[in-house]
Specification:
By secondary structure, the protein is of the alpha/beta class. 42% of the residues lie in helices and 15% in strands. It has a 5-stranded mixed β-sheet. A hairpin with a 4-residue loop joins strand 3 and strand 4. The longest helix is centred in the middle third of the chain and has 28 residues. The chain is flat.
């Protein structure tokens, strides 16, 4: 499997009916990359029992990544993992249907696509395999998107329901489930980043390949050993330092705070009048100000 080719192939497939000379150059570059990377393989490894595995869903978006249509690209990556096991399941790269106005808007659309198309079906399948309830960790690298999903309100994006057919309230209610964990992820550790945009830095590209478990088959054992050690260290640090976003607990806390406060149906201003803020009466207009003087 070569998931590292998803974004490049997806970008060319969008211009299949309107092919240009630039598309020829891109196709030639893709063929050259494949010819020089025949030893790359995507692999997974198992270190513990499958009963401890957990679904991890990564979603990312590249704001206005297409220079022709100005549309964003959604990237999704799903895997099963624990402390010593990592097994990739699927990946996706899809151009969004219409133009997004901001980066948080593109990220919200990508999160909705990841959950509806990949996350929820994977949870249903894993419940059958595990013979019980399953849990999933959703990784998001945009803090504004995390805040919108946490609160369930975003007055500046009320057009999402009509343009992208995305409901923020549905996202909020879905993440209120105890089996779903919304976790903020650093951008340099976002595994779905490789499915959203092109890279020009060789070192950064190699790092993105390791995030999706694509290694050189000649040095496979060494690469897997190093990545397992790094992943175990990152998980240990994350559990001790990074805060987790638990929505169901915050929702109960907000309901308790709301019950303590008195309900006010309508209030336009302060209940007690302030000093020195009396409204002045309008002076009546004088007759000489309203009657025009005859012109000679």
């Amino acid at each position: 499997a070569r998931p590292d080719l998803l974004k490049a192939v997806n970008a060319l497939a969008c211009f299949l009916t309107k092919w240009t000379k630039q598309c020829d150059r891109k196709l030639d570059r893709i063929i050259g990359y494949i010819a020089n990377t025949l030893t790359l393989r995507q692999c997974g490894w198992v270190g513990t029992s499958s009963l401890t595995w957990q679904l991890h869903l990564f979603a990312d978006a590249d704001f206005s990544g297409c220079g022709t249509t100005q549309k964003s690209t959604s990237g999704v990556y799903l895997l099963l993992a624990d402390d010593t096991s990592v097994y990739p399941l699927t990946a996706a790269s899809k151009r969004q249907q219409c133009v997004s106005k901001s980066t948080p808007e593109a990220e919200i659309v990508a999160a909705d696509y990841a959950l509806r198309s990949i996350g929820i079906p994977a949870m249903d399948l894993h419940e059958v395999y595990a013979s019980g309830e399953t849990s999933m960790v959703f990784h998001e690298d945009n803090q504004a998107t995390v805040q919108v999903i946490k609160t369930g309100r975003n007055p500046t994006m009320r057009h999402l329901g009509r343009t992208h057919n995305v409901s923020i309230t549905w996202l909020h209610q879905f993440f209120c489930d105890e089996n779903i964990e919304l976790q903020w992820q650093e951008s340099k550790l976002q595994a779905a980043d490789i499915f959203t945009k092109a890279f020009t830095d060789r070192d950064l590209w190699q790092t993105c390949l390791r995030h999706i478990n694509v290694f050189d088959s000649n040095n496979l054992l060494q690469s897997v050993t190093e990545l397992t050690q790094q992943k175990h260290e990152l998980l240990t640090v994350a559990r001790n330092t990074l805060p987790k976003v638990v929505l169901h607990a915050d929702l109960q806390h907000n309901e308790q705070e709301h019950a303590r406060k008195p309900h006010v149906l309508y209030q336009t201003g302060p209940l007690t009048p302030r000093k020195g803020n009396k409204r002045r009466k309008a002076k009546p207009k004088r007759l000489r100000d309203t009657v025009r003087k005859p012109t000679l």
